[in-house]
Amino acid sequence: MKRADKSAAIAALSDNFRESTAVLVTEYRGLTVQQLKTLRRSLGADAQYKVAKNTLARIAAQEVGYEALSDSLVGPTALAFVTGDVASAAKALKEFTKDNPALVVKAGVLEGNFLDAEGVKKLADLESREVLLAKTAGVLKASLYKAANVINAPLVKTVRTVDALREKQETAA
Fold first, then answer.
1. Which of 81, 85, 139, 140 could link 20 by a cystine bridge, Cβ 3.0 to 4.6 Å?
2. How many CA atoms lie within 13 A of 116 on its CB side?
3. How far apart are CA 14 and CA 37, in angstroms?
4. Sequence-distant (≥ 6) Cβ neighbours of residue 10 within 8 angstroms
5. Residue 81 — pLDDT band, cuts 50, 70, 90?
6. 15 three-class SS
7. What gap in Å lies between CA 69 and CA 22, rounded to an integer?
8. Is 0.85 topped by the overall pTM?
9. Which residues are 80's β-sheet partners?
């Protein structure tokens, strides 16, 4: 690779690192081209899966302050640059590894924080953004419902008391 090509590749990788919410480092040794194509499709539009030379990826990672990834950039390395929902991309990788154990998730970076392989697995176990938002909405709705009941309780108690007194007077007369 010529020097100009290398510097262009480093610049492109650096841009990918900067623009991504998360970067997941994988080793793809033993996977066929067709399997990699399937993996790219399963990641969806929110992630780009790129095979990169370790030296160039290491230089690009250092340029953007991701020095912690250097130890993970050995062997046949591919990087998943995630710009959307990180949990869904991690889940896609986890699902793919069930059918293709040759893919190894080594590490990652999430918003500047280093994740080891176990951290990426925990990220994959998170529920999707939509489910988390729905649960949050449910909690808020329940809180509002409880508040409405607390505010309404004195009025209901007063109505019941008046009704009980009326019935008592009707039965006494």
1. 81
2. 1
3. 23
4. 56, 59, 60, 63
5. very high
6. helix
7. 12
8. no
9. 24, 49
As given in the structure block, the two tokens for residue 93 are 């990788």
Span 75-96, mean pLDDT? Answer: 88
pLDDT digits 0-9 by tens, 5-18? 888 888 998 898 88
Judged by DSSP in three states, 119 sits in helix
Helix 86-99 to helix 117-125 angle (10° resolution) is 110
Q: Are 72 and 106 in contact (CB under 8 A)?
A: yes
Edge to edge, the sheet with strand 47-51 lists 47-51, 77-82, 22-27, 104-110, 113-116
Core vs surface per residue 13-33: b (16+ CB within 10 A) or e: bbebbeebbbbbbbbbeebee
In 3D, which of 29, 20, 25, 145 has the Cα closest to residue 83?
A: 20
Q: Count CB neighbours of 36 within 10 A.
A: 17
Name residues whose C-beta falls within 8 Å of residue 32's C-beta, 6 or more positions apart in sequence.
Answer: none
Alpha-carbon torsion 18, 24, 26, 45, what sign?
negative
